[in-house]
């Protein structure tokens, strides 16, 4: 080795840079992996193994934040806790009052749907997950949560927060999962305008809290402040959860579609916790790639 | 400075440097600063390929790239491909670049990192992530400006821990 190095050093350009063949081999290998990962998603085991390998890195990155929150909890004064408690109590009271009417409305809705012989997709199970504070690719909107296939998370699962739809699980690893936000430039969600029932698509933008509605015609009945809810078409997202609020609606007669943008309903900028949603019925089999049975049908006993 | 004539030492330091680079890669930053984040893993790979070309090369780049892919949710192989290209180009140029003054090194590093960004942009473009192309060139620029400091710190540490 030493002799070889001494012979090589006088040359300015090494004649055999790093083994061109080896480099080519690894380039081909990574291209094949990318194609395979993209087309079939069959590299899940490798992905899961690598993700488990780098999970400690994510924990290290999250540690100061977690410590900060923990310290905040520990050092909170009695009076601050009392104030917060009182606040939460009044919020709960208000929410309960709203829920009272909701029960009867849900009943009525169910009856009407039965009359129309439409299947209602109500209910479902929800579990809390903590967002690990880590920045992934700056050009995509991804977050990592601390629940994985171990907790019954599956790919394509809807993620909510207290205010609306956050996104969907795009990769479920054993210990953690990756959630793509609705505002990711590569995401689109089927929405309907709550006021008029107009159905359209909302796609993500480069902005974290902004959605764009590219296929709204110029004569559509939309105005600022309209609430967008998920329409449930396409089968990925449950129906009727808030997605966004229209912030801008510009008609441009020169173009086929109007410029419409919306602010996401979910608090994508500040939240620390999100909710994982399991629909009441099993998700349609066509939507998901084949995977082991326990992942699709999580055991209720294992969750909080 | 280069321990060419002794047995390889300090593997732990190389591994540790990559772990630190991975941590810095996903360290949470405010949203406006995210596009200014230096690309730590390519920077580190360039450093090691310049000064320890007989130990760190294409294979290390490939493995490090796969870890970044797993960490940042990109396609398995995307960062790996970009890093292999960077490592290969660095190995090809390493004897020249070593003797360059610092500002010329910065220019070369900028070129190498632009190559890295181009490969990433190319793959992302095929996947449909074509938004904000102008911002794509910010991380290489910021990283290249940081190069002299990274050089200083890393070579001090390398000497101190006798990594060769």
Annotated CATH architecture of the domain at 188-264 in chain A: Beta Barrel
Find the CATH topology of the domain at 188-264 in chain A: Thrombin, subunit H
Would you tell me the structural class of the helices and strands of chain B?
A: mainly alpha
Q: If interface size is counted as residues with C-beta under 8 Å from the partner's C-beta, which chains form the largest one? A: A-B, 54 and 52 residues
Mean pLDDT of chain A: 80
SSE pattern of chain A, N- to C-terminal: HHHHEEEEEEEEEEEEH
The CATH class designation of chain B is Mainly Alpha
Taking the sheet with the most strands of chain B, its summary is: none
**Strand-residue fraction of chain A?**
15-25%
Total number of distinct structural domains of chain B: 1
Strand content of chain B: under 5%
Average predicted local confidence, pLDDT of chain B? 87
The tally of strands of chain B reads 0
